[in-house]
Amino acid sequence: MMLALEIFGGMQSIVLLLLPIAGSMMLAYGVLQIVVDLRSANRRRIMDRLKGGKDPKSAAAKNAVTDLRRGTMEATGFLAQRFMQFRFTAELQRVLEQANLPWTAPSVLVNVSAAACILLAVLLLIGAQPIPAVCAAAAVLVLPLLYVYKRRKARLKKLTEQLPDVFELLSQALRAGHSLASGMQLIAREMPDPAGTEFGRVFHEQNLGLKIEDALKNMADRIRVLDVRFFVTAVLIQRQTGGDLAEVLDKLGTVIRDRIKLFGTVQALTAEGRLSGYVLLALPVLVFVAMLQVNPGYANLLIDTDMGRMALTVAIVMQLMGWAMIKKIVNIKV
């Protein structure tokens, strides 16, 4: 009975601690979403034009085959089916495909949620403090997702760097008399992942009976890289109106190669600002941990008192907002 009361008291203190943090983060996220939506209206119009004015979900529904891996594993279980109803599950599935991971979004969400809940319950049962227990459970919940997003970012970056070589190889194949499908097969055979994998999917999809135009649209919707959309748009226009596709690919490859060089220059010039953001984000945490070791009575005021917890919550939210602003400033689009 006493153990149950201790667990209930610990859970109550956790809820009281998380409610202001969650409210502040939701407020900051709402404001950020409003700003992003207001500033990205022009970009959405451009992307709609590149997509041909069609919703990618409805366009994919019209195709007989949308992707070789998509939909091969249905969500099973109560929790997986509940997760399927949320919008972010479809977005996570697209991220998993972009990262080339053979997982499904519902299974990932169910596994990380179950692991976080089990770890939280075990830590509370063995008498751990509520705040470290919640932090450990949150780390188990967030770290796998961060790994997926990091892998996806690295893979798409590598794909963008490979595109000039891909276009050069494809243009040479076209000049040598190969068809577009044969050029796709050549890229799949000669280029490493991710370019070889993605263009190999296009080749296999058209081998299974899908039109090569629809296979290219599937690749553009799956990858969502602007340079790939340029390539797909150029191919679609050439298939409808004719023209020298090899010359277009040469020019597109030159533009992408120059932009990669410019992006490297911008990254070098903004390295100091990015490093300053990381230092400013980590410095308060390191100072707080040091104060817990040097003077615990002074530092525990931020944890044991209501005013201290409120100040700590406000500080965390402001730290995250400051880091997001610094990242927005140094993240120059090229």
Describe this structure in words.
By secondary structure, the chain is mainly α. The chain has a domain at 156-263: Type II secretion system (T2SS), domain F (Receptor-associated Protein). It contains 16 helices and no strands. It has helices spanning 2-39, 41-50, 56-62, 78-83, 87-98, 105-125, 130-175, 180-190, 195-207, 212-223, 226-241, 245-269, 271-294, 296-299, 301-304, 306-330. Helix 7 packs across helix 8 and helix 9 packs antiparallel against helix 10 (212-223). The N and C termini lie far apart (62 Å). Residues 53-74 have low confidence and may be disordered.
Write the layout of secondary structure elements.
Layout: H1 2-39, H2 41-50, H3 56-62, H4 78-83, H5 87-98, H6 105-125, H7 130-175, H8 180-190, H9 195-207, H10 212-223, H11 226-241, H12 245-269, H13 271-294, H14 296-299, H15 301-304, H16 306-330
Helix pairs in contact: 1-16, 5-7, 6-7, 7-8, 7-12, 8-9, 9-10, 10-11, 11-12, 13-16
Which key terms come to mind for this protein?
334 residues, mainly alpha, Receptor-associated Protein, 82% helix, 0% strand, elongated
Average pLDDT level = 81
| Helical percentage | over 70%
Supply Rg: 25 Å
Oligomer: single chain
Return the string of H and E elements: HHHHHHHHHHHHHHHH
Structural category: mainly alpha
Helical stretch tally: 16
- CATH superfamily label of the domain at 156-263: Type II secretion system (T2SS), domain F
Distance between the termini: 62 Å
The CATH class designation of the domain at 156-263 is: Mainly Alpha
Largest sheet: none
Shape call: elongated
Name the CATH architecture of the domain at 156-263. Up-down Bundle
Number of strands: 0
